[in-house]
Amino acid sequence: MSTTNRRIVLISRPQGTPQAENFRTEVVEIPELAEGEVLLRHSWLGLAPAARLRMTEQASYREPMALGDVVYGQAVGRVVASKEPGLPVGTSVMSIGGGWQEYSIGNAENLVKIDEAIAPPSVWLGALGTSGMTAYIGLLDLGKPRVGETVVVSAASGGVGSNVGQIARLKGCRVVGIAGGQEKVQHLTEVLGFDAAVDYRSPNFAEQLRVACPSGADIYFENVGGAVRDAVWPVMNQGGRIVVCGLIAEYNDNRQGGPGWFPILSKRLSIQGFIMSDHLHRQQAFLQDMRQWIREGRIQVQEDVSEGLESVVPAFIRLLTGKKFGKSVVKL
Ligand SMILES: NC(=O)c1ccc[n+]([C@@H]2O[C@H](COP(=O)([O-])OP(=O)(O)OC[C@H]3O[C@@H](n4cnc5c(N)ncnc54)[C@H](OP(=O)(O)O)[C@@H]3O)[C@@H](O)[C@H]2O)c1
User: Fold this and answer.
1) What single string gives the DSSP state of each residue in 202-236?
2) What angle do CA 102, 106, 109 make, to 5 degrees?
3) What distances in angstroms separate CA 308 from CA 101, 116, 121, 290, 327, one per listed residue?
4) Is the CB of 164 under 6 A from ligand 1?
5) What CATH number belongs to 130-277?
6) Helix (H) or strand (E) holding 266
7) Which residue of 128, 166, 176, 223 sits with most ligand 1 atoms within 8 Å of its CB, as the best mutation to test the pocket?
8) CA distances from 131 to 39, 122, 292 (A)
9) Which atom number of ligand 1 is nearest to the Cα of residue 181?
10) Strands 37-46 and 103-107, how do they pair?
11) Which residue lies with its CA nearest to atom 21 of ligand 1?
12) Strand partners, 177
């Protein structure tokens, strides 16, 4: 086993889209384990927009990273050394804060055992991990979809959005996805079974969205914010529910604002933000349903796979610039 760890740290705060110069790869000695700790060898990293949020100094729902910190991210892997009897060597686990590195140290509180017999490790970072659970909680617990309702989801090709659309379909809703580019739009309808999909980069996006929602929208699952949000609000039906999961279009440039509050009043809209980690008590129900849906082929797993620690930063930039499909995962 190696005694050193390669890791990627944040060395400057990105202005706009992150650049390679904002990060440094370094090699450090792996420290001794304390009682209750285990050493995890990462086999896969999961990339998520939340890392970009933590690169700014501005407080959000998580603390900002400090300069010099290992970049925040999830990982799966095997325990290779253990001082925790409940997590013996060989145990497969997922670590929410494993970070962009080859090894991390964790304990029973921040590691979740995964079963590779149910699904390959990378799926525990996506459909069976936080992306899938975020989709499940946001749509089912907060959106409360009813059969026949129309659900609009933005960043529909991403880790969360692709699951939101598929779950909404199997709950009997009409699903309209919003994504960037014709190829993604086609994939959403032809492969993932969305009823319609619209390219937000198209010059007449707002009009196309209106046509795609002939009966309006009852639920909007918000992943993006910015101009996409501004186009969706006018198609919301009276009594519509907006579930605010993320605002990825605003992470690079801190854009704020919005369409103004009058539609909330006139259309009696409900708008609710949520953070998935507040709903961990729902994890068993989520895993039970999601495992079954994947097994039955009712949910398709979408992954954007890169390989090697050196591919992490380029893959993360692709994530923030819409040049990938599905959950971004990196095989180490
Ligand atoms: N509330 C929670 O607990 C929670 C948990 C997980 C994730 N989230 C949030 O959920 C959202 C989706 O996360 P994810 O993990 O599914 O992300 P993801 O898989 O990385 O997908 C992100 C997608 O967003 C789209 N996008 C990027 N920049 C955009 C822009 N400026 N305008 C419009 N679309 C843009 C891109 O697709 P296109 O090609 O379509 O542009 C990209 O593929 C994020 O906002 C994230 O922060 C929230």
Assistant:
1) STTHHHHHHHH-TT-EEEEEES--HHHHHHHGGGE
2) 145
3) 10, 21, 16, 29, 16
4) no
5) 3.40.50.720
6) helix 262-266
7) 223
8) 25, 12, 17
9) 39
10) antiparallel
11) 158
12) 153, 197
Query: What is the pLDDT, as a whole number, of residue 313?
Result: 98
Place of tokens 């103004």: 260
Q: Where are the domains of the chain?
A: 4-126+302-331, 130-277
* Identity at 310, one-letter amino acid code: E
Pocket test for ligand 1, best of 248, 253, 323 (most atoms within 8 A of CB): 248
The hierarchical CATH code for the domain 4-126+302-331 is: 3.90.180.10
Nearest CA to ligand 1 atom 26: 322
Looking at this protein, which amino acid is placed at residue 248? I
Q: Which residue's CA is minimally distant from atom 42 of ligand 1?
A: 322
Residue position matching structure tokens 């910015």: 226
Ligand 1 centre distance from Cα of residue 49 (Å): 6
Residue 50 CA: which ligand 1 atom is closest?
A: 47
Find out whether the beta carbon of 50 lies less than 6 Å from any atom of ligand 1. Answer: yes
pTM listed for this prediction: 0.94
Tokens matching residue 61: 């729902």
- Which stretches in the chain have pLDDT values below 70? 59, 254-257
Distances (CA, A) of 159 to 108, 156, 231, 237: 26, 8, 22, 27
252-283 confidence digits (pLDDT tens): 776 666 777 888 898 999 999 999 999 999 99
Whose tokens are 């936080």? That residue is 130
What atom of ligand 1 comes closest to residue 319's alpha carbon? 20
Could you give the CA distance from residue 31 to residue 45 in angstroms, rounded to a whole number? 21
- Using the structure block, give the residue that is written with the tokens 């519509």: 240
pLDDT tens digits along 91-141: 999 998 999 999 999 999 999 999 998 899 999 999 999 999 999 999 999
Q: Residue 53 is encoded by which pair of tokens?
A: 């949020």
Q: Which residues pair with 153 in a beta bridge?
A: 177, 221
